[in-house]
Structure formats: C-alpha cells, structure tokens
Amino acid sequence: MRVDPFRTPGLGDQTYLWTHDGVGVLVDPQRDVDRFLAVADERDVEIRFVLETHLHNDYVSGGVEAARRTGAELVVPAAAAPAYDHLPAFHLEAIGGGGFDIRPLHTPGHTPEHTSYVMLIDGAPVAVFSGGSLLVASAGRPDLLGWARARSLGRLQYTSVRRLAALPDDVALYPTHGEGSFCTASNAGRYTSTIGDERRTNPVLQVDSADAMADLLLARPMPIPSFYAHMGPSNTLGVPDMRSPVVPTMSVAALDLFPDDTRVIDIRPRSVQAGGLLPGSLAIELTDDFGSWVGWLTPHDAPIVLVAGPDDDVAEAATQLARIGVDDVRGVIRELTGAQLVGFTLLDLGGFVADLDADAQLLDVRMASEREEQPLPGAHERFLPDLVAEGLPPGIDAGRRVHIVCGSGRRAAIAASVLASGGIEAVTLDRDGAAELTGHLAPAA
C-alpha cells in the first residue's frame, strides 16, 4: 500500500492517491487534476475509483473530469444525489477493487451526506479517508450550510467521529481538511494521523454527549468565506473541465472596454504594490492563499483582470482561481507606465512604531477570534472582508492617516489598497502583526 498526498496549502486541503498492487484510488480531487494523473502515469498506476467524501464547500471538485479521463468509477455519497453519472456509496455496502475493498461509512456532521471510506486489504482495515469528519486534532465544522442546521449537524458529528474512532488503532487517518482550512471547527494540527493517536488526543473524542459536541464545535465559529456559497451548487450540478490557464496580455487602456463589474487584482509583491496601484484595484499578492482571498473579496461571477510584473506566475494565479470556479480571467496588465496610480506606505515594525503618535488611528483587520486571543489596545476593529464590503468602522477620520495591522502584513496590504483607492492615506505594518506590535503600545485606558 502507498499513499501520495497532494496538499493545497491555500485551501488547507489534501487530495490523496491510494495505491495497492498497481491499482489506484483517487480521493477528493481538486479541479486541476493534471497533477494527480501525472503521478499515476509516472508510476503506471491504473486509477480504478475516484472517491468523493462530500459535496465540497471550499473548492470545485475535479472528480468528474478525473473519472472521465481515466475510465475510473466515480463514487459519491448516495445522499448527495448529484446531477452527473456516479456510483452511489451506501453505508457499509462494500465496493470491490480487485485485491482490496472500499467500505463506505456514513459520517454526517460536516454535511448531511458526508461519507468516509475505509480501505481494506485481505479483509483488514488499513486506512480511512475521513474527508471533513474526523480530522487531526479537530473535526469538520457543522455550520457551513447555515446556522439553522448547525446544531443538528454538530450532534450528528458526535456519532460520526466515534464511528471512525471505533476502527483499530493502527488504521491510518487521511482527512481532506487540515491546517489552514476554513472547513475545520478549530485549528487542525498535522495533516495525517492514526485512529489510535486521535482517540488518545483529539478534543472532539473527549466529549461525552451529542449536545456537548455541538457546543464544542459551535463555541467559536469562524467566518465563512463568501465563495463557499457557490461551491456546493457547483459540485452538485457539475462544472466544465478546467481550461488551460493561459491569460492574454492587455493594456491599461483596454480596461475601458470591459464591463463595469470587472475587478482588477494586482498580484505583484506588496513591496511593489505599495509604490503604485491602479485606482480601484485590490492588492492581493500571489501567495498560496491568493485564490481564496480573491474569492472572498470579489463577486463570484465578476470578470477578473490581473496586474502582474514580469516574474509573477500568472498561470498559477489563474489555476488558484479555477480551483474555486472563477474562470472569467480576461487578461493581464504587465505595464503601468503612464497610468494614474495610487499607493500606500509599507513599514517594518520599528518604522511603524516610530510613525505612531498619540493621535494615530490604528485599524486592526484580523478576524474576531484572532483579536480575542491577542487584543490590540486602542485599535479600531474591522475584519478585512467587512472593510471591503462596508468601509471603515465608525470613529475613523478618513481625512487623516490610518495605520493598518493584521497578523503578518498580508491582509493589511489588501486593506491599504482599499483605502488608497478611496483617497485615504494608509500606512501598513509589514512582515509583523498585532502580536509583535502589542508590546510597543500603551495599555488601553
């Protein structure tokens, strides 16, 4: 048996290729399936099954395309009833693989239809793909389908994680969601584990009732990225195969030909962005979570134009967007010479502290749970997506400089681009955040 994980850090997820005697099972593939199929081809692995644990809320699945291109059977939880051809997985109804068996376990909680898959060799369980049910040091959150159903799903998760914990200690645990995913109820730890390790250490396996489980999972709900609302319907109805991430080069002047709802996203390093942005553009530097922030901060169906430097990987940017179903990338602008630009100030910790005075306006754009763990004395608070949607919080004078802080400078730079486009002078703390700044601030009165 061999398991190859394919981690997508920006989404906090993993796809797996499970192989036994040259036969492969692909689990929860994301939309850019070439990276999985290339490994299977290199190893001369016949992918016989593509397994989906649930209708994903955080990315567009590549299951349909992977199954079509390999001739594999696409297996989907029976209760999901998607609109495309598939083999429904029923609880405990064994699926034969030739030398191994797949045993579906209905594990609702993260979603109603959620199903985990136990892999058996010679009748003995050796691994389980738990999707968004039992995770490493956590469990999948139950509130993504709305608060009205959250408690009911939280109670179901109690039974589901115990169903998985009843497997033998040495069974390997391979969850889809992990660290960095907004599908986890709390900060998940490592990406893989064993049933025995989780039974001994996982907090969700220490509670003693369904109500206590719901209380635990819903005690500190994290925000839900806005693009999640579009993933479930896409994965139910199906999406076109992913297109080649080739993006044509265009001029600034060509923007006048695009629809009014076009969003301009600047993917350059934030040290470059600070020196000059197109007014109205969002400064979202291309890193692992680029696609997630674009999906969260822009309308899902809006056309996208990128701004990039000569060394920026536009194909990677387009791939990250395609993973969340954003396909309408119209072009990339690589030359801003002669264009009207706006900018912001980027300072390291020492420079930022020196720039603060008694009347400084400090804006904290972290989410509420971060602010609770590490308060920032005297700061005005507005989570970045709320800033983009609603503007500055009450009490900030837009006619004066605003000093912006997050956890590392990433979100603060995005916020600075929003303020700069509105004619507000923005100063951003770069490479450090609230934790480092706190010791330099006077305690709140």
**Main sheet: strands, sense, barrel:** 6 strands, mixed
Distance between the termini: 61 Å
Outline the low-pLDDT stretches.
Answer: none
Radius of gyration: 23 Å
- Trace the largest sheet across and list its strands: 1-2-3-4-5-6
- Residue-averaged pLDDT: 95
Proportion of β residues?
15-25%
* Outline type: globular
Write the layout of secondary structure elements.
Layout: E1 2-8, E2 13-20, E3 23-27, H1 34-42, E4 46-51, H2 63-70, E5 73-77, E6 87-89, E7 95-96, E8 101-106, E9 115-121, E10 124-131, E11 134-135, E12 138-139, H3 147-165, E13 172-175, E14 193-194, H4 195-201, H5 210-218, H6 228-237, E15 249-250, E16 263-266, H7 270-273, E17 282-283, H8 290-297, E18 304-307, H9 314-323, E19 329-333, E20 345-347, H10 349-355, E21 361-364, H11 368-373, E22 380-381, H12 384-390, E23 402-405, H13 410-421, E24 426-429, H14 434-438
Explain what you see:
The protein has helices at residues 34-42, 63-70, 147-165, 195-201, 210-218, 228-237, 270-273, 290-297, 314-323, 349-355, 368-373, 384-390, 410-421, 434-438; strands at 2-8, 13-20, 23-27, 46-51, 73-77, 87-89, 95-96, 101-106, 115-121, 124-131, 134-135, 138-139, 172-175, 193-194, 249-250, 263-266, 282-283, 304-307, 329-333, 345-347, 361-364, 380-381, 402-405, 426-429. The chain is an alpha/beta fold and 445 residues long. The longest helix is centred in the middle third of the chain and has 19 residues, at 147-165. The chain is globular, with a radius of gyration of 23 Å. It starts with a strand and ends in a 7-residue tail after the last helix. The mean pLDDT is 95.
